[in-house]
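Objective 1b. Sequence-to-structure analysis of Large ribosomal subunit protein uL30.
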Amino acid sequence: MAKLLVKQVRSKINCPLTQKRGLEALGLRKMGQVVEHDSNPTILGMINKVKHLVSVEEVK
């Protein structure tokens, strides 16, 4: 299974509550924080909700 590195690049201030909770579900609490996740439909759906706040890289 592919791994994804997800980094928060924009602030969650003034975002809807669902997007704030999406970031927390991904494990992102601060700007610049990076987390690693497996690539599965659940994680990809959460990333899609907050794609304007994060950057995603695939790890080989």
